[in-house]
Write a structure and sequence with these properties.
This protein is an all-alpha fold and 156 residues long. 63% of the residues lie in helices and 0% in strands.
């Protein structure tokens, strides 16, 4: 992952104390609302998909697609607020989830579930390495234990 670009991360210790509550609200409250609604939407869509019996079910497809899209939109909002990773991949995941609704409306809902699962797993796999901070020249490196003196004691 050395060839991935680094991105600025936001640490609470770098912020003024007055700015920390706003960051907490933006990241851990407002961004989590679509995350939670997305989880609920996916659960409701899955329940309707199970009940559909392998037939196309436009309402279940729309709920499932919107739920997954809401989850990824919340991920994008959280990453933007906290500056912890790529927002573009989450936006692509949200668009992909919405587009999968069309498939579930005309084909058996299992087809949408398979395509949605494969596509979103690919987006998550691409986003995971990019979300890790890149160790560039500015990142401090841990010194190996060999810096301890010959006696085995750390210098004071």
């Amino acid at each position: 992952h050395r060839d991935l670009p680094s991105f600025p991360t936001r640490r609470s210790s770098d912020l003024r104390p007055a700015a920390r509550p706003g960051l907490a609200l933006a990241g851990y409250f407002y961004a989590h609302i679509p995350l939670l609604l997305g989880i609920v939407g996916v659960a409701v869509g899955m329940r309707a998909a199970i009940r559909s019996g392998g037939e196309p079910h436009p309402a279940a497809a729309l709920i499932l697609g919107c739920g997954a899209a809401s989850y990824f939109a919340g991920q994008a909002a959280f990453r933007r607020a906290m500056r912890t990773g790529p927002v573009r991949l989450c936006a692509i995941g949200a668009a992909f989830a919405l587009a999968s609704s069309a498939l579930g409306a005309v084909a058996p809902i299992e087809a949408q579930l398979a395509v949605l699962t494969a596509g979103l797993a690919a987006v998550l796999a691409l986003a995971a390495p990019a979300a890790r901070p890149h160790r560039g020249l500015s990142a401090p490196r841990r010194r190996p234990a060999s810096h301890i003196g010959h006696t085995g004691h750390r210098p004071d």
